[in-house]
């Protein structure tokens, strides 16, 4: 009885602590939602905890579309996250398959060469990439942004997918070869379906990074036609207090795609990282 009583008290204590932490975490989010729908005048004259007297979402959205062209930045980031992330992961999957399954010459050395791309901070690459892009005409273009994002996500993606491949039974792959399956057929029909969970996990991780990136978006673009959404939102950084509600609305809008993507793929995310860490 005493042990059960202590266990019950401990359970209640843990629950109370978790509730307090949840309230602390939710409060800033509620602050953003409540103030994002206020007008600039209402925000500047009232208290931040006051409930909105009127909803000015349309007014704040109009300001965002006029000042920073948030819509075009939103579409650009969707393109970069989808195409850049997808292209980089496909290249990483091919590289991981070649290194681990095809047993290419000096495969481990090639792996370390590719993975060495994660050693240096991305700031180191900025000046060489900037100069190269200016020379070849890729500066301030959507193609240039897709290519740089695809290249940057390859090292970590190879690391994750190679770990997954190391856990696949070699006997199964050998039996497929004995049945006449080519290496590309094995990659397309066996490896890719089996790797659905880690591929989804890596894509979610890399899409989120591309979507949230500010460094390359600010450095490699200058026009609205190529500027990603975070670089567009950063243009509001010098705004005065009267422009706070549009900034908060922008923060909510730019967080929607990653939230939706996480909800749709959270099961594969959990399975993917469990598989790749075994």
From TrEMBL:
- Give the PROSITE patterns listed for this entry: ABC_TM1
Where is this protein localized, as stated in its record?
A: Cell membrane
Q: Which GO terms describe its biological process?
A: transmembrane transport
Segments spanning the bilayer are: 12-34, 78-99, 108-127, 147-169, 190-211, 244-264
* Positions of the ABC transmembrane type-1 domain: 74-265
Q: How does it sit in the membrane?
A: Multi-pass membrane protein
- The name under which this protein is listed is Putative sugar ABC transporter (Permease)
Under the heading Pfam families, the entry gives: BPD_transp_1
Q: Which InterPro entries match?
A: MetI-like (IPR000515), MetI-like_sf (IPR035906)
Q: What does the similarity note say?
A: Belongs to the binding-protein-dependent transport system permease family.
Q: Origin organism of this chain? A: Listeria ivanovii (strain ATCC BAA-678 / PAM 55)
GO CC terms, sorted: plasma membrane
Which SUPFAM superfamilies does UniProt cross-reference here?
Answer: MetI-like (SSF161098)
Q: Which domain of life is it from?
A: Bacteria
UniProt keywords (A-Z) are:
Cell membrane, Membrane, Stress response, Transmembrane, Transmembrane helix, Transport
């Amino acid at each position: 009885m005493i042990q059960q009583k202590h266990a019950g008290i401990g359970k209640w204590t843990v629950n109370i602590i978790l509730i307090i932490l949840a309230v602390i975490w939710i409060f800033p989010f509620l602050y953003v939602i409540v103030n994002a729908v206020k007008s600039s005048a209402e925000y500047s004259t009232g208290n931040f905890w006051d409930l909105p007297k009127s909803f000015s979402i349309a007014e704040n959205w109009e300001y965002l579309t006029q000042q920073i062209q948030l819509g075009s930045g939103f579409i650009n980031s969707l393109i970069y996250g989808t195409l850049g992330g997808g292209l980089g992961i496909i290249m990483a999957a091919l590289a991981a398959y070649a290194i681990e399954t095809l047993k290419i010459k000096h495969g481990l050395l090639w792996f370390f060469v590719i993975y060495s791309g994660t050693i240096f901070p991305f700031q180191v690459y900025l000046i060489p990439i900037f100069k190269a892009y200016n020379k070849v005409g890729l500066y301030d273009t959507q193609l240039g942004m897709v290519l740089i994002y695809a290249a940057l996500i390859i090292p970590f993606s190879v690391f994750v997918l190679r770990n997954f491949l190391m856990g696949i039974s070699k006997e199964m792959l050998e039996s497929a070869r004995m049945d006449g399956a080519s290496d590309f057929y094995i990659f397309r029909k066996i490896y890719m379906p089996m790797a659905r969970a880690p591929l989804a996990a890596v894509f979610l991780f890399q899409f989120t990074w591309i979507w949230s990136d500010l460094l390359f978006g600010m450095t490699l673009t200058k026009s609205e036609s190529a500027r990603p959404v975070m670089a567009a939102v950063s243009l509001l950084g010098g705004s005065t207090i009267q422009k706070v509600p549009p900034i908060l609305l922008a923060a909510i809008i730019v967080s929607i795609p990653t939230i939706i993507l996480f909800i749709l793929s959270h099961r594969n995310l959990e399975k993917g990282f469990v598989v790749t860490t075994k």
